Structure prediction request, 626 residues.
Amino acid sequence: MMTTTTPSASTPAPGHWERSRLVPSRRQLAFTVALSVAGAVALNPITLNPFVEVLGEALFVGMVLLFGFKVAGAWRQTVLPRWVAQVLAVTLGAALSPFIVQMLSVGGDFSAFAASRPMVRGYVLVTLSAGLIGSLFALGALYRERDAQARAEALQFALERETLQRQAADARLRLMTAQIEPHFLLNTLANVQQLVESGSPNAAPVFRSLIAYLRAAMPQLHQQTATLGDEERLVRAYLELMLMRMPDRLTFSIDIEPALRALPFPQMGLLTLVENAIRHGIDPGCDGGRIEVGARRDAGREIRLWVADTGVGLSEGAGTGTGLRNLQDRLQAFFGPDSGVTLLEQAPHGVRAEIRVVAPTAA
Amino acid sequence: MIPSMAATTPTALIADDEPLLREQLVGHLARLWPELQVVAQARNGREAVERFDELRPQVVFLDVHMPGMNGVEAARCIGRRAEVVFVTAFDQYAVEAFRQGAIDYVVKPIEEERLLDSVQRLQARLRVADDAQRPEFGALLERMAQELRQRGGARSYLQWIKASVGNAVRMIRIEQVLYLRSDAKYTVVAWEGGEALIRTTLRELADALDPECFVQVHRSAIVNLMHVDRFSHGPGDSGEVHLKGRNERLAVSRSYVHLFRQM
Prediction:
């Protein structure tokens, strides 16, 4: 019962008043006028005063009630729940405003007011009807407000759910690509073992690369939000491992624009293309080749990433389709429908894979 | 070639495309079989066969997975002229085949105890030193070579369509292709990203495409069923297929309407 803290997320500057709640909406204003007119029409037959006077009184009362309602709603206080304060303000307004009207009509003489039976009767009548109608109006307005709030929350919820669904879809797709091939792992470990046994100074950095690769490739250890910088480290780790294994057949370069390192990027997206380049381009050829990885921001928000190799090239029957389809789906889930991956044949031989994405914000 | 020398100093060739692993095997063998002389190292199957022909070592260690000619193919070339031991990283298929065929193999990363078993078997067999008494693995190796070739990526059906777009040759994944239509001397490839012209004829393509996905609906058109939204009957016995998310429709001639009959 102590406090009912009002959430004030929408107001940047704290103060005693919530400005956004103070100004009545056009609909509220129109509603108040309509109700006042209806009240005046209803009261007219049972009062002796001319209709214009009654109407003026009703409008005045209506406006006071609306004012009370808005002020009580905008006032930052922690003693009463807002709706109680608002209904109280309306009731108070209903009691006070007809009294003010009556006092004005008798020139401020209370005893004259108290002595006049029709005046007191009129006051009670107006107060009761204004209090009743005003409270109903206040409750109705509060109900509408809560409804709008519920709708806004539902919208927010739907938005969050969609984000979650997208993340879940990405995680599922990622799981499908993230499989460490036993053949790759055991061959790599055999190489590392030799480095260790021969006391090579390369052992330590190679271990670091292996750990970096495994961390990314194991579904359980996936990061929720990876950046292009993370991807660059992963690709470098993988290529360092491959360089250890085929030093006479592989050369590589990585050239990613430093400003792009903070870009959120689907984890293992670039790696998929690099693995393809090794598997289908470099590894099958006795002479191996060179792999070039890069990323550039083109005009505006468009970003181009590429993995180009000078390997043997893809045969028309080579099956890398599912990995690429998967990558395409993930890119579109991540960056929108205008993103995608394209494969081009390189002269004299090799493949160039290009990713085009539209960055979410022009950072 | 008189094998009197060979009886005293056994010789070996090691073939692996990864230099550290060649080095490692050399090290293991130096410890387990000091008399063995590794006379050559090769980086792929073809080199292995060349070096073998040159030096005729008695023992050959062949990595299964090598570029160009793989270990199994090299073993087929060497035949019964040497003792062959395969070296392989995890490969369920190969290991199973070797076991069933009683072919000697060691698994990477190499455990010395396992290698010692192989070394002892080799030493026992070299005492006999007669090529003719070596078992013949030809048929099994041929089957394996075939299997490994296929696994190398060569699927039975077309996975890519290579089409010139400007100066570049674009590789279109087959599942992105909506339909193929013959157009004078060319074939039009309609795919998710646009249209491209290729020189391969529709008939040639029909033979190379997966019949589960690609069906001929007209003399001049093949459609990818994955992109078909629905079929509607047209005048006479003909019909039309409507594509998912696209406006164009493809005519289905009478002889192909049966493909779309209700189940």
